[in-house]
Amino acid sequence: MKYWREPLDTGDIDVVRGKVHIIKDRCKGCGYCIEFCPREVLGFSKEFNKKGYHPPMVVKSSECLNCHYCELLCPEFAIYTVADDVETEASV
Amino acid sequence: MARAKRQTKAKSAPLEEIPKHPLEDLIRVERIPHIWCPGCGIGTVFSACLSAIKQTGIDYGKFSMVSGIGCSGRGAGYVRLDSFHTTHGRAIPFATGIKMADPSVNVIVFSGDGDLFAIGGNHFIHAARRNMDITVICINNFIYGMTGGQVAATTPHMAKSATTPYGNPDSPFNLPMLAIASGATYVARWTMIHSRDLTHAFVEAINHRGFSFIEVLSPCPINYARRNKIKTMDMVRQFQNNTIIKNHAAPSELDIDFQKGVVLGKFIDIDKPTPDEILVKMRDQRKNP
Asked: What ipTM was assigned to the predicted interfaces of this complex?
């Protein structure tokens, strides 16, 4: 993320990072998660799933902020995010 | 040798490592994948409804989901709660019956525009008039999706459908205005893309005592978007860009016109006694005059 100046408390704030889980065989390839991800974390993969659709894949895994929007939007219960406490904003 | 090793690994991996979705305890996983088409918004609304049920923190045994016939009517079959898939248009009478038999149950009617407003129109207005303590979720996809895309009571003016190939000559219902005029005490409208506001509205509606009605605009990729030569993604983007959030807007400005901008938000939230409360009070008064 770009700032016009470095916030004074950058070191103190832990920005939550998320890890995306995709249940590939449930996906019907509507693309809502890819289109509406606010951080553009996802993209279409080239592989086919069991039903012949292209499921999403994580393109920029470090960008995910665990906002759960893909999870809310997915009509197929095929994607969800969990908090990933490995990385913080300070370390990026 | 290395290749063979990799293959066995790939084969055994899905069995062990299938991760669990947070709503897995509320859906009948054995029935997934559901019948809704790729790009259909009903699944999103359904997932928002389940998240709302989870967020209220109420015991799952105190919920009941009722739905009628149609695409969205399948919702009752996919939820791991007490649920009823009723006859066409009669979801609200069934819900009223459940509520009167056990007023402690939170009854959610999850159905479509055709079921609730065309064949079940009278049931809707009378349940709203009585202020029955039920939550009605109406998924408005502008068409009769399951039966083949015939014109519905909510199809926009001049929109094409299977039965109006040159455009719909009639005007659609203004559903929130109808609900407010009939006496509903909580009325809101959102679209499937406003998932967070939608989930919040569902939580409010479940906690609200009285008749709560939420209209959710949703795309029908096959029978509405394709017939009207709109891409589903463009339709969803229209939901995002051509809508105005305006709480407590006047009911007359709530007609659906994407050129002008569709008004979303919570339009009414008032307290009024419900029939189950009134009946208990009347019974007590008769016993001890």
From this structure: 0.85
